[in-house]
Backbone:
């Protein structure tokens, strides 16, 4: 699914039932893709709960850039993707998330996206070695319940338990959260389950 945004095209890969219990949109960090190990673990959990998952490659990555550019433009592009996804799936619970820079986008746009919750993987609390340049306001300002999953060895810092609805810190993990995907899945599964109450209809698939 290709979506034209005000700042270039985005690419969306859809997995799951056509009539899901919930919709989860996930996106990548500034120098990665939607196939990152931790994102894949979350995707599999959501699919197992009857959700549909949209893996979103943002315009800057699709254009081959590593830097996402101004946050306002990145957020505007993301919200256009969300609008199109919600048109397609209708009135089902909508959750959004991402890893690293994608987690920041998901938090910043949660209110405008009318998200029920946010999954923030490896939220980059501050640049490495610069704790004074904190991004905690993005996390606290999401306006919806946020689940943070970070590694205890993340050089970008670890949010405090008071900064989000739930903060799970995984021992031995760094920023990439790729050492033990099962632990990432285990942290996310009970949190996503709250939106899985409505049984999914497996009459068709969402396509890709």
Residues:
């Amino acid at each position: 699914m290709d979506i034209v945004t005000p700042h270039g095209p985005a690419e969306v890969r859809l997995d799951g039932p056509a009539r899901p219990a919930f919709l989860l949109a996930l996106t990548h960090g500034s120098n990665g893709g939607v196939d990152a190990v931790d994102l894949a673990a979350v995707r599999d959990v959501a699919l197992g709960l009857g959700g549909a998952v949209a893996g979103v490659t943002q315009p800057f990555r699709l254009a081959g850039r590593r830097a996402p550019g101004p946050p306002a433009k990145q957020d505007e592009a993301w919200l256009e993707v969300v609008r199109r996804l919600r048109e397609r799936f209708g009135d089902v619970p909508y959750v959004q998330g991402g890893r690293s820079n994608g987690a920041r986008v998901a938090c910043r746009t949660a209110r405008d996206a009318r998200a029920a919750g946010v999954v923030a993987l490896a939220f980059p609390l501050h640049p490495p070695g610069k704790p004074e340049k904190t991004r905690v306001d993005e996390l606290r300002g999401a306006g919806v319940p946020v689940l943070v999953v970070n590694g205890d060895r993340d050089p970008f810092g670890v949010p405090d338990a008071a900064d989000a609805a739930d903060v799970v810190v995984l021992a031995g993990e760094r920023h990439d959260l790729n050492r033990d995907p099962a632990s990432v899945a285990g942290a996310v599964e009970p949190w996503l389950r709250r939106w899985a109450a409505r049984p999914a209809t497996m009459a068709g698939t969402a396509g890709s």
